[in-house]
Amino acid sequence: MKVEAMRKSFSRSLAAAFLAAVVSAVGVVAAPAAAQAHPGWATCLELSNGHLCARGVDNGQSTDIMYDKTGGSEITARFYLVWKVNGSRVYDNGSWMLYRGVRSFVFSGARFVDYRRCMEVQGQGSFCV
Fold it and tell me: Which first-to-last residue range defines the signal peptide (predicted)?
C-alpha cells in the first residue's frame, strides 16, 4: 500500500511540474511581440509587416511615433494624432514611402496622454496605438 501511495504522489508531483512548465511556456509565447521587439516604447501595435509604436518624450509634453517595417511591399503613409477631446487631427510633415526600415516623427507640444497616435497607409486605412 505504501508503494501505491508513493507512486500516486510522484505522479501528482510530475503532473504538477509538467503543468507549471506548460503554463510558463505559454506565458512566454503569449507575451506581446511588440513589447519585446521595442523596449522603451510606451505602447506598440503588431501589424502583419511591422510594429507601430508610440511614446511620450520631453516629460510627456511631446509625442514620438515610430513604424518599424519588416516585410511586405512598399507603402505610402503618414503619421497623425487624434485629440481625445474632440477628434480633431494633427498631421506630420507629409506622406512618405517605406519598403523596409524605421520611420519616426515627433509631434512637439502634443502631450502624449491627450492624443491617439495613428498611421494612415494609402489603400489600407489607419492603424492607431
Answer: 1-30
CA-closest candidate to residue 66, choices 28, 119, 13: 119
Confidence (pTM): 0.71
At 68 the pLDDT is: 97
Q: Across the chain, where does the E strand assignment appear?
A: 43-47, 50-57, 62-69, 75-83, 89-91, 96-98, 101-107, 115-121, 125-128
Q: pLDDT band for position 54 (50/70/90)?
A: very high
Q: Provide the pLDDT for residue 117.
A: 98
33-128 CATH fold: Immunoglobulin-like (2.60.40)
* 51 CB-contact burial (10 Å; exposed 0-12 / middle 13-18 / buried 19+): buried
